[in-house]
Fold:
Amino acid sequence: MRQRHDHPARLARDLDALVRQSDRREVLRLLGAATLLPLFGCGGGTDALAAGGPDGGTNGSCTRVPEETAGPFPGDGSNGPNALALSGILRSDVRASLGGSSAVAAGVPLTLTLTLVRTASSCAPVVGAAVYLWHCDALGRYSLYSSGVTAESWLRGVQVTDALGQVRFTTIFPGCYSGRWPHIHFEVYPSLATATTGANRQATSQLALPQSACAEVYASSGYTGSTANLAGVSLATDNVFQDGATLETPMVSGSVSAGYGAALTVGV
Structure:
């Protein structure tokens, strides 16, 4: 009889423990999901990336990223204009021009997250480094250099790596111009204070964008000529990536309508 009287009390305690355990699992689930946010950002493209489904890319490596040419249009003071000296160059959204221009580069949205790790320190995050990023517009033109856009400074910007070694840029998917695989340039500087001229850079490299994502984007409006240019080049014939692009190809996911997300771990 005593056991029968205790049974409801034990049942209540068991149910209460089960609820608490369920709540704990839910909290842990939410915390686990939250840890993905710094890696992939927010928005349609980056959410899709966090869920999986890379487009021919990798998540990078602790191996040092290959050193590549800054190309003829760096805008770091080493070859003409110096975007690093522009007021407002420290920014995450690089689609608008700086200074007196109100021009904004048109194209399919792309959110790019780079995670810098120190190859000589067991892949520890590189904190406080400055990353300068630039690339062409949907028509293959480089601001500050190309005919008709020398007065513009869009698609250029600097960000400082956070406690996770990450920087995130909001930009557009670059077009493909004749002779080059679709790509994005970046330079790494020891600190924001040193990101004033290309002479101070520690690393210079490029990102090779996956072919299937490029084909999807170039089938949309605004990328005149990119489909034909992409058909005329390959990673094997590109003068930068022909020796391999495994460490330079980001994971890319998303769609033309929702935008794309890209992420790569960069060893420096």
User: Anything to note?
Assistant: The longest strand covers residues 109-118. Confidence is low (pLDDT under 50) at residues 1-56.
